[in-house]
Amino acid sequence: MSLSVSKVLQKRKSSILEKWIQNQLSDEGLREDLISNDELRASSEELVDILATTLNDTNIEDVNSEDFEPILEIIAGISLTRARQGFSPRETGLFMMGLKDAVLAILHEEMQEDPASLFAESMKMVKLMDNFSIITYETFIKGREEVILRQTDEIAEISTPVIRVWDGILALPIIGTLDSARTQVVMENLLQEIVQTGSSLAILDISGVPAVDSLVAQHIIKTVSATRLMGAECIISGIRPEIAQTVVHLGIDLSTIITKATLASALKYAFALLKLEVRKTQKEKTTLL
Fold first, then answer.
1. Handedness of CA 138, 90, 43, 66 (dihedral sign)
2. What is the pTM of this model?
3. Across-strand partners of 233?
4. Which of 64, 80, 215, 258 has the fewest CB atoms inside 10 Å of its own CB, making it the most exposed?
5. Which of 104, 138, 155 is a domain's end point?
6. Does the residue 264 lie in any domain?
C-alpha cells in the first residue's frame, strides 16, 4: 500500500506531536513567561488531532477546501490569543512552521525508500502548511491591531483627565498632540464633567502640547465654543513664548479667549471671577513658660 501525507499523519500522529513539542521546547526564543509547557502541549495536541482527522488524499491539494474550516478556527484562536499575550509575529509564525517541519521529518522517515512519492507528498504538505502560515500571520496582525486600537483608546482616556480643582472650577491638562479624534474626547469629557459638577469655569492647560499650529488652534477654539454653549467660561493656560509667537505668526485670532501663561495664573484668575480669595495664614507663636 502506497503511503501519503494523510496516512502518515494518522499512523504517526503521536510521533509528529512529540517531535513538534520537542522542537518548540528546545527553541531558545520560547517565551515561558507568556505560555506554560502545559498550555503549549494542549494547543499543539489540539491542532495535530484535528489535522489528522480532517486531512485526506483529496482535500490536501485544495487549500481552500471547506474541510479545513475547523483547523482555521483553531489557528485563528491561537493567533489571536498570542497577539493579545504579547508574542511577536516571528514567534507566532514559527509555531506553525514547526508543525510543518515535524510532519516533513516523519514523512521522510516513512517514505525515504520512495524518493519520488516523498517529494510529491512533501510538496503537497508544504503548500498546505504555507497557506496555514499565511492565515496565521493575517489573523495575528488583526489581533495586534485590535490591541493597539484598545490601548490607544485607553491612553486617550487617561491622557485627558478632567480635574475638579475647586468648587465650580475644572482643569483639563492636555499632554501630547491634539488632533481631531482627541479633541472629540477632550470635549466629551469636559462637557460631561461640567454637567455633572455644575462648574462655571474650565481651565484648558496646553503646557504639555509640543506645538500649536492652525489646526490645533482650531481644535482649541472648538473646545472653548462647546464649553460656552454649556454655560461655562473657558480659560486657556500654558501659553509658552514660542507658542505665542507661532499663534501671532499664523494670524490666529484668540482675542476672544482668556489666555494665561501658567496654570497657577489661570487658577488665580478663576478665583477672582468667582470672588474667592486665597490667603496665607501665619501660625500664632506660642511662648513657653
1. positive
2. 0.57
3. 201
4. 64
5. 155
6. yes
Shared domain check, 172 and 141: no
Cα distance between residue 225 and residue 50, in whole Å: 61
Judged by DSSP in three states, 147 sits in helix
Return d(Cα 1, Cα 104) in angstroms, integer.
20
Share of the chain above pLDDT 90, in %: 23
Residue with cell 514559527: 94
Adjacent-strand bridge partners of 172: 204
Identify whether residues 38 and 180 lie together within a single domain. Answer: no
- Domain's final residue, options 115, 131, 155: 155
pLDDT for res 284 = 63
207, 178 Cβ separation under 8 angstroms: no
Cβ neighbours, 10 Å, residue 154: 10
Q: Looking at this protein, which amino acid is placed at residue 187? A: M
Phi, psi of 278 (to 5 degrees): -110, 125
Q: Residue 207: which of 178, 232, 165, 169 has the closest Cα?
A: 178
Q: Which residue has the cell 460631561?
A: 192
Place of cell 466629551: 188
**Measured between alpha carbons, how far is 182 from 153 in angstroms, rounded to an integer?**
9
Question: Is the separation of the CB atoms in 253 and 221 below 8 Å?
Answer: no
The per-type count for the chain, helices as H runs and strands as E runs, is: 10, 5
Amino acid at 176: G
Give residue 1's pLDDT. 45
Report the CATH number at residue 134. Answer: 1.10.490
Nearest to 186 by CA among 158, 215, 210, 150: 158
Domain that holds residue 247: 163-273
